[in-house]
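User: I'm putting together notes for a lab meeting next week and I want to include a structural view of one of the chains we've been expressing. I don't have a solved structure, so I'd like a prediction I can at least talk through. The sequence is below, exactly as it appears in our construct file.
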Amino acid sequence: MFFKLIADEVRFAQLEFRKHRKTKRIVLGSLLACMAAVLQAAGGFLPGVGYMISPFATLPILIGAMFSLQMGVMAYFLTILLLFILFPSELVIFPFTTGLMGIGIGAAFSFFSKRISIILIGGFLLSLGILCLLYVFRFPVLGPTVSNSFSFLATGGILIFSFLYSWLWFEFALFFFKKIKDIFTP
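Assistant: Thanks for the context. Below is the predicted structure for the 186-residue chain, given as structure tokens.
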């Protein structure tokens, strides 16, 4: 299951998407960035239920990077800029967690064809972002339950969670991509 090759649908959709005019690709990237910023800021605007919505900020970045790595990176940085203007408290979380994983998985679709490779890239980048926030910047990204001092148990838990979460997003992205690819490709 993990070593199964992904379908050529993603590669074909990327080639077809590159045939669109640059203006259309930039507008789509901007729209995806706006969607990601609104979803990420939902945790601050709607306390409680918004925290269940904000993880979906990964999807617009991931889909953008699946169609075109350039568009995904543009949407990622534009989302960071929008969060800086609209909701600065979410600015620390997005670049290191949801956004980084979305770019990682989306870019991995361009470079790898095995499922395990794509999942490992996404999981590694999410782990790296969480560990960097937690142990380098001492930002309590996981709340008060996890200490800012290094722990092998906490690090192992973060690694396992990150790879399972990456796997979930990989499957979700493939499902969602198959549903919308016909909209963006002729």
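A couple of points you could mention at the meeting. The radius of gyration is 16 Å. Residues 9-184 form a domain with the Arp2/3 complex 21 kDa subunit ARPC3 fold (CATH 1.10.1760).

User: Perfect, that's what I needed.
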